[in-house]
């Protein structure tokens, strides 16, 4: 292995040590605060630390040339997730530890079988059809939880199918755009300054755009709608370089959003909460108002871990966990967290740029941009830059569907980073 790879692995282990120390320190502080300090309190942290080490060692052996920073950064985020859930919802702490461990195991499985999985890129319409089936399954079997009808209940398990549909959409776009790039770049039909390719080449993209609008209107799932729409627009622009597609997509999305606002009461309510939260601070806007108070109370340095009042925010362990981090760790803490996400995105983009296979390149780029876009959407929601969206913060928010799908994305990106280096 080349010398740069050895340096990368060593620095990855340094980040791993820091993640483990953070995990044990958080466990120590919360148990001191609650006067429950015992040896048994450290068992979950110890189990997760062992899983961290084992996964790090195995992943390096499986993909010696892979970008080890990707996994190390996610382990750091997973440690933050564990200590924040312990702080906010102690009864869900073991559940989150289990989901993180399952996610890491799924990561290893994906890395192991990634070559076979990537062969599915040769069947773009199968991938696209699979994504539509998942979206339609929510329309038929979806259950309303927290104001969004984007969940399917399977016995004791609640599944959020949109988390897995986005992976199929990324894979479909990677394959479809790379195969039809020339047709999309050099359209054969035009009207004045608008020049478009034949409809059959635009139809798959229009179908996904329409699905995002449908999710917004029917399922009240603004977060997934924005995420799917953003993925399609950005990946299409990256593949073709045509600003016209971006302009057309933004126009129709804006038009359909405005029509939805005029026709549907729940859309009007969500916009009203976004624009005028202080009109009903103890009612419908209570969640976002408490989030803003949390950021203000935390200030630059934060109140300190265990010294804030983040539990005043409803569902703080899912949609609003970033507000809890902002309150107790302050501007400095959230800046470091945002830098970790930005670094993870940059490493993903670097992996994409090193690839020569067009499908792999778009796949790696799509996975990286989705991570950054999802992070931006949820952070914009809790800071009132955008209406509340209801999606999760990758690798940190509580939830099995989000955690597993995020680790699947990481596994694919990690495997792609080892190719053709």
Give a structural overview:
- With 421 residues, this protein is mostly helical.
- Helices cover 71% and strands 5% of the residues.
- A 3-stranded antiparallel sheet has the order 1-2-3, covered by helices on one side. Strands 4-5 form a two-stranded antiparallel ribbon.
- The N and C termini lie close together (11 Å).
- The model has no long low-confidence stretch (mean pLDDT 86).
Main features:
mainly alpha, 421 residues, three-stranded antiparallel beta sheet, single chain, two-stranded antiparallel sheet
Q: Can you lay out the helices and strands and say which pair or pack?
A:
Layout lengths: L2 H31 L9 H20 L5 H21 L4 H26 L5 H18 L1 E3 L2 E7 L2 E3 L2 H18 L1 H5 L3 E3 L2 E3 L2 H20 L3 H19 L2 H21 L1 H11 L10 H13 L22 H34 L3 H25 L17 H17 L5
Antiparallel strand pairs: 1-2, 2-3, 4-5
E-strand count:
5
Roughly what percent helix? Answer: over 70%
Order of helices and strands: HHHHHEEEHHEEHHHHHHHH
Note the total helix count: 15
Structural class: mainly alpha
Question: DSSP strand (E) fraction?
Answer: under 5%
Shape: globular
- Largest sheet data: 3 strands, antiparallel
């Amino acid at each position: 292995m080349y010398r740069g790879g050895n340096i990368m692995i060593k620095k990855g282990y340094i980040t791993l040590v820091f993640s483990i120390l953070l995990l044990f320190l958080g466990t120590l502080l919360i148990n001191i605060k609650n006067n429950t300090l015992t040896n048994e309190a450290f068992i979950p942290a110890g189990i997760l630390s062992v899983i961290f080490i084992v996964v790090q060692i195995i992943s390096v052996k499986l993909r010696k040339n892979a970008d080890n920073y990707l996994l190390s950064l996610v382990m750091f985020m997973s440690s933050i997730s564990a200590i924040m859930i312990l702080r906010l919802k102690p009864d869900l702490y073991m559940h989150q530890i289990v989901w993180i461990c399952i996610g890491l195991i799924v990561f290893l499985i994906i890395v192991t079988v990634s070559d076979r999985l990537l062969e599915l890129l040769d069947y773009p319409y199968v991938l696209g059809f699979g994504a539509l089936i998942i979206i339609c399954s929510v329309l038929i079997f979806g259950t309303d939880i927290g104001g969004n009808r984007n969940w399917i209940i399977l016995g004791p398990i609640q599944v959020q199918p949109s988390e897995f549909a986005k992976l199929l959409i990324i894979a479909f776009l990677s394959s479809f755009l790379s195969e039809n790039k020339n047709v999309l770049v050099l359209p054969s039909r035009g009207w004045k300054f608008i020049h478009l390719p034949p409809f059959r080449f635009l139809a798959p993209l229009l179908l996904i755009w329409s699905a995002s609008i449908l999710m917004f209107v029917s399922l009240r799932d603004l977060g997934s709608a924005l995420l799917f729409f953003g993925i399609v627009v950005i990946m299409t622009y990256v593949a073709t370089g045509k600003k016209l597609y971006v302009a057309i997509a933004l126009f129709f999305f804006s038009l359909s959003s405005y029509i939805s606002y005029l026709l549907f009461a729940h859309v009007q309510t969500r916009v009203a909460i976004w624009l005028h939260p202080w009109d009903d601070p103890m009612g419908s806007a209570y969640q976002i108002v408490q989030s803003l108070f949390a950021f203000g109370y935390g200030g630059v340095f934060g109140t300190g871990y265990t010294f804030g009042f983040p539990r005043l925010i409803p569902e703080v362990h899912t949609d609003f966990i970033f507000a809890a981090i902002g309150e107790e760790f302050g501007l400095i803490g959230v800046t470091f967290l945002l830098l970790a996400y930005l670094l993870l995105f940059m490493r993903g983009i670097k992996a994409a740029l090193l690839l020569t296979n067009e499908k792999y390149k778009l796949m790696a780029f799509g996975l990286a941009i989705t991570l950054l876009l999802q992070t931006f959407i949820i952070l914009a929601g809790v800071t009132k830059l955008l209406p509340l969206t209801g999606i999760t913060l990758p690798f940190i928010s509580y939830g099995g569907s989000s955690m597993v799908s995020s680790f699947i994305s990481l596994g694919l990106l990690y495997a792609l980073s080892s190719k053709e280096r």
